[in-house]
Predict the structure.
Amino acid sequence: MFKRIWTADMIESHIYSTHSNKEPLNSHYYATHYPSVYAAAERIFGSWGEAITACGFDYSDIRKYKVWNRSKVTETIREMAATGQQLSSQKAQTNHKSLYMAAIRYYKSWGKAVMAAGIDYSVIRERRSMSILEIKTEIIKLHKAGVDLSYCNMRKNYQYLLAYGMKKLGEGSWDAARKVCGIKTNYRIPPSKRKIKRVPLVPAEA
């Protein structure tokens, strides 16, 4: 089987073509979708970042995962506060996922990271007194939008709603919380085999 022998010029041309097609240029994407190009770039340029730099791109703007440390986390949070960005846990999970995960890693919670940045988190926290009606409404809204309401996906992308649902609706169970909202789908089986059971989803009064 013919095996292409990559040169520096060929790699750069491939990167320019990928960029023109509006595909990502980060290392994870290339290693997954174009492994031979990625391996050749690592060998010829020394690293994927160097290959991107050789093409005239700023790799710090392209890389999928930022390099975080404790100081970078608090510095970024202060910059967000200074520019008027919302600092609630929900907003951080939705709009700044890598920062949020780094905050959890270094400070154990988003609130502690915010406080480490010198900001009173109790003042900006959005979800402190989320009512039962609000919880149901948000869960139902996600369901209607076709969001995967499995425990794993909720823990990954909607931790605040998972926690409130389990606490206030399901007595510690996320499955029970979904059923309280009228959602009967069995999320424990593979998505391809699920039978979506829909019932009229009308939020009950708190």
